[in-house]
Amino acid sequence: LTGTSIFDPVVAEVSYRWFCPDGGLIIDPFAGGATRGAVAGSLRFKYKGIDLSKRQIEVNKQKVLDLAIDGVDYFNEDSLNIKNVVKEEADMVFSCPPYYDLEVYGDGEGDLSAKGTYEEFLKSYRQIIKNTVSLLKNNRFAIFVVGEVRGKDGRYIGLVPDTIKAFEEAGASFYNEII
Q1: Spacing of C-alpha 63 from chain mean position
Q2: Which residue, among 125, 131, 138, has the nearest Cα to 165 in the 3D structure?
Q3: pTM for the full model?
Q4: What are the pLDDT digits (tens) for 155-169?
Q5: Cα angle vertex 14, ends 10, 20, to 5°?
Q6: Nearest Cα residue to 51 out of 86, 82, 10, 13
Q7: Contact status, residue 51 vs residue 111, Cβ threshold 8 Å
Q8: 37 with 51: CB under 8 angstroms?
Q9: Which of 55, 82, 116, 145 could anchor a disulfide with 96, C-beta 3.0 to 4.6 Å?
Q10: CB-side exposure of 43: number of CA atoms within 13 Å?
């Protein structure tokens, strides 16, 4: 085990089939492992995943190559710069962002999981959401798989409502919650 969670492929499959038009472009500002991209490509969606970890991006590219999956692209970039990578409008946003400091992925510049305070995390997180939503076609869906995180005092920090608020501030409407 690496200390980080593995994304459930069934959650990706159901979300893509329900909320993205056939063959649509899915963008993922926090690509992490290869699961979401591999599922998208297997279902004949186009997928562009962005992640800070060069090593993870290389692993993801090799996995989709080994599986002979087309239409999947991974980019080693800070998601704040998503507009430098994705030049066309997307049919769906689908991601699983860092849950603040629940799992620390690295300590590099821009790594949200290594931000010193929740407020610093939120500042970058909100901007990434805003930049990503600006690439979404009208009448399309953005899905972030997110749960709560406890602060050092044991109380919830409010990641779920802060995520909803960030999307609303970016111009999206809160359509549904799936548990």
Answers
A1: 18
A2: 125
A3: 0.91
A4: 999 999 999 999 999
A5: 135
A6: 82
A7: no
A8: no
A9: 145
A10: 24
pLDDT tens digits, the chain, 179 residues: what are they? Answer: 455 568 889 999 999 999 999 999 999 999 989 999 999 999 999 999 999 889 999 999 999 999 999 999 999 999 999 999 999 999 999 999 987 765 656 656 666 666 678 898 899 999 999 999 999 999 999 999 999 988 889 999 999 999 999 999 999 999 999 88
Tell me how far apart the alpha carbons of residues 88 and 159 are, in angstroms, rounded to a whole number.
29
Q: How far apart are CA 67 and CA 157, in angstroms?
A: 39
Amino acid found at 147: G
- Residues 173 and 53: their CA atoms lie apart, in Å, by 31
Structure tokens at 69: 């999956």
Q: What stretch of H or E contains 168?
A: helix 159-169
* Closest by CA position to 129, among listed 8, 28, 14: 28
